[in-house]
Structure formats: structure tokens, C-alpha cells
Write a structure and sequence with these properties.
Blueprint lengths: L1 H4 L4 H21 L6 H29 L3 H27 L13
């Protein structure tokens, strides 16, 4: 998001999108969704479409009604990502769970 937010052309926006895709894939690969196979499957099926739709809706609202939309939309998303990171950290602390990549011999 930082790369996309500071982009000054198409190439930089494309690079930001590629980095975002790599980061998302890295995170999804470490989530312990296999503990409850049914819920994990459902989450993987629903989350991409739902988050894309919600993201597009709020991005459109920010661009239409708030000042400095070219930068503000990325600042808002960075704030959301920070809040999500804290939520995941608290969840891991509360449950005592380790990310799957930290487990030795993890088999999906």
C-alpha cells in the first residue's frame, strides 16, 4: 500500500499491486485454516469476493466525498492493515497458537 500510495505513474501502481498480491499470498499461506477444514474452506471461498467488493465500495466513497483521494484511500487502508495486524497478534497471544509456518512438520 505504501508503494501504491506514493506512486506517480502506471508502472509504480503496477509494482504496488504485484507486491500486494505477493504479501496477501504469503499471509494466506501461513494462516491456520486447516484446524477446521470446513470453516477454512468457507473463509477462503468468501473472503476474496467480499473484501474486493467492500474495498471497491469504500474506495469509491473516499474518492467521491473526501479530500485528497489519490493519497487518502491508501492511508486509510494502511490504517486498516495496522489494526488487523494488532488483531491477529492479540488472537495469537490469547489462543497460544503459533502460525502454521512455525510448526515443525506441518502437513496441510
Amino acid at each position: 500500500m505504501v508503494v501504491s500510495g506514493r506512486a506517480d505513474g502506471t508502472v509504480a501502481l503496477f509494482a504496488g499491486r504485484v507486491l500486494q498480491g505477493i504479501a496477501t499470498g504469503s499471509v494466506l499461506g501461513t494462516l491456520p485454516l486447516d484446524r477446521d477444514r470446513e470453516r477454512g474452506t468457507r473463509a477462503n471461498a468468501i473472503a476474496p469476493g467480499l473484501s474486493s467488493g467492500i474495498g471497491a465500495l469504500f474506495s469509491g466513497l473516499i474518492v467521491r466525498y473526501l479530500p485528497a483521494p489519490a493519497r487518502l484511500v491508501y492511508a486509510v487502508f494502511i490504517g486498516i492493515f495496522v489494526a488487523q495486524a494488532f488483531g491477529v497478534a492479540l488472537l495469537l497471544l490469547r489462543t497460544g497458537a503459533a502460525p502454521c509456518s512455525a510448526k515443525a512438520g506441518h502437513v496441510p
